[in-house]
Amino acid sequence: MTSSETAPPGTPENDRVRLTHRQIVTVLSGLMLGMFLAALDQMVVSSALRTIADDLRGLTAQAWVTTAYLVTGTIATPLYGKLSDIYGRRPVYLCAVVLFAVGSLLCGFAGSIHQLAAFRAVQGLGGGGLMSLAMTIIADITSPRERGRYQGYITAVFAGSSIAGPLVGGVFAGRDTLLGLDGWRWIFLVNVPLAALAVVVILRVLHIPHRPVRHRLDYGGAAALAVGIVPLLVVAEQGRGWGWGSPRALVLYAVGLAGLLVFVLVERRMADAALLPLRLFRVKAFRLGSVLHFVVGAGMFGAMALLPLYLQLVRGMSPIEAGLATLPTVVANVAVTMLVGRMMSRTGKFKVHLVAGIGSLTVAMLVFATLRADSPLWQVSIGMLFMGGGLGASMQTITTLAQSEIAQRDMGAATASVNFFRSNGGTVGTAAFLSLFFSLSGSRIGEGLDSAAQDPSYRLLAEEPANAVPLEGVLRADGGLHLEDSAFLGLLDSRVALPFLEGYADGTRIVFLLGAAVTLIAFVIAAWRVPDTVLSSD
């Protein structure tokens, strides 16, 4: 039975597809290749983003490259849930892969940081469906108790991409040119043949029954959601330059809030056809899962965007070195995910793992908040171990929580909805973390340079030609700083570079302290509100 075929007449609407373990693993192989495509891209881009931003002269605007992808992925995710309920999982999943490939091809020929961000938005339209549809299909073919076990396979995909991504990113970003193009452009172009392979594999192995569900597509809700989210994200990105209470910021606050209000009104009118069916929020487990996905997603994506910057800007690592330095996160993530998945499958309990995972994330943030310019690498690794273990224990259990009380006919919309909240939290977290980081770092660097200038020996060292030339492109005539390109750090004497390194380290500490406060909120919610239920094995 293919994905376009319907179930036999008389089949109960909420029956789950019954497959053997071997059949489930076969289906997973198709899903995992599609997800590997998106996960590898995120890791490669993250590890090479500093090089890309320097080449396009847009270091402080690099948040747009990440947030543009997350914005479109966030808005598209609920639509994928509805579309897959109507037309089947496989054709919609294939469309997501193709869209992702088209966006990748465009990114490979971007001429500026803002053009790259626009093309990343196209890429995000496809990427938004790859994760949510995979999780939906897993929910279609497994019981609540089994899901942790099979979601471990998905985590293995991310672990593999975490290892391969920095290596691939480092190789391409480290090449000036390759076949006549800038080396970093191949980071995106390599996705095209990978996407073609994913299409072939999905067509061969992704065969699951599909029972069409009659839905109207909520285009009005999608438009209202875009009007609500995009202005708020623009403020998160540009607020440090405009001023958080400036007239432009206030106008965008008002537009965003109005858009969100219209979105809620549209969703109420659309009822079951809504992009995010409001009746799902009457289910406590779904409501809690959505909130936790948002809060944990903000902390997780924010940390994942900021940590490579610390390793490269402050510690002076190359993209490939920074990627390899994150291996403790990968090891802890894989080990804990597999362990927690098996324990959930055996006992049916998940709250203890959920609380412990979010607690571990909070500890990781606190460890990162102690980092300085001269902190030993083992201190960073300790934080990475806590972060990897926390993600391994929390992300799969939050998804399991959100799905645990949802009827099968709503599984596509529900899974897409909770992934929407995670992506939305990640978008807000990434934009806010990076915006605050560059804002705080810039001011701290300025203060550090003013203080260092009081030392005659520092002034003499800075006036030496080997240091004065790189500094000319950084120190503005009006006393400001031009930090769009960080390549100058590698040209300075270490003593002259110290105020810059300490400024970036100060910004890192403050932002990670904020991240700890965010994940602590999630810890309190999980410990206080999530019931200690036992998952069904049916």
TrEMBL record:
GO MF, any single term = transmembrane transporter activity
Keywords, alphabetical: Cell membrane, Membrane, Transmembrane, Transmembrane helix, Transport
Statement: the UniProt record of this protein carries the keyword Transmembrane helix? yes
Which spans are transmembrane here?
A: 24-49, 61-80, 92-111, 117-141, 153-174, 186-205, 217-236, 248-266, 286-310, 322-340, 352-371, 377-402, 510-530
PROSITE patterns attached to this UniProt entry? MFS
Q: Which Gene3D superfamilies match?
A: MFS general substrate transporter like domains, Multidrug resistance protein D
Topology with respect to the bilayer: Multi-pass membrane protein
Q: Which GO terms describe its cellular component?
A: plasma membrane
- InterPro entries tied to this protein: EmrB-like, MFS, MFS_dom, MFS_trans_sf
**What CDD domains does UniProt report for this protein, alphabetically?**
MFS_Azr1_MDR_like
Classify the source by domain of life. Answer: Bacteria
Subcellular location per the Swiss-Prot or TrEMBL entry: Cell membrane
Which PANTHER family did the record assign? COMD (PTHR23501:SF197), MAJOR FACILITATOR SUPERFAMILY (PTHR23501)
Q: Which family does it belong to?
A: Belongs to the major facilitator superfamily. TCR/Tet family.
What NCBIfam families is this protein classified in? efflux_EmrB
What protein name applies here? MFS transporter
User: What species is this protein from?
Assistant: Streptomyces inusitatus
Q: What is the lineage of its organism?
A: Bacteria, Bacillati, Actinomycetota, Actinomycetes, Kitasatosporales
